[in-house]
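Form 7-S
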Amino acid sequence: MEMRVSSILLDSLKEYEHISLSKLNSVELLNRSDTKYIFNEKYLLPIISDLKSHYNLLQIGSENIYLYTTTYYDTLDYLFYKQHQNGNKKRFKIRKRSYSSSSDIYFEIKEKNNKDKTIKNRFPFNGKLADLDDLAKSAILKSTRLSVDELKANLEVQFFRFTMSDKNFKERVTIDTQINVKKNELSKSFDRLVIAEVKQDSYNSKSEFFKILKKYKIFQSGFSKYCMGLINLNNNLKHNRFKPQLMKLNKILKNNYKDINAALI
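Output:
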């Protein structure tokens, strides 16, 4: 499936002040509090308009929207998925991530701890698990008590992302559109879904982003691309815990534009 950025979305971002990658890295927040929102893309343009006086937009070269490709790894018996399904406070995601903005590939270990903080470690990667260096292998073992040999590629996710920072460089906001998931020969597109995430050193309810989304009656909602992607491609997985999210997702995807010509994508 061909993925492209809509000209309408590109035009909507032209009025933003820009921030460089080096400046954005000052709010990299590898140890952070994450707050997620999911909503139908019909709200995206109004939200972008409201945000522009409060946030700067990442631009690398002449681009400000980037294609992300992520491969998630898990064990044969879906250990990391089950940690989410079982409601474990401490849980992991292990993934490979590449970006259209550069040739860099990273291997990432993402841990959610029992204090609801997200800790991310990442390592340069050539895409082959067998070639991971000893530092990365040691980090896997220390964090998850698994060896690299117990992991296998389990799901591929592609999406477009643009990234913002507030004017005070206290928080980073990512907005993802056109989410597509693939497992072997199976694939699914979550058209009309937008996933927004606010990353802060510690939760601050006074965020302008929170206020703007509340204006549109959009409220915080947990969402895992990995877990929801797997569920939608594998009906045999136990997913009782995710049923409320599935219902919300289906409602969002069915909430289409009255005027189809106004659609972003």
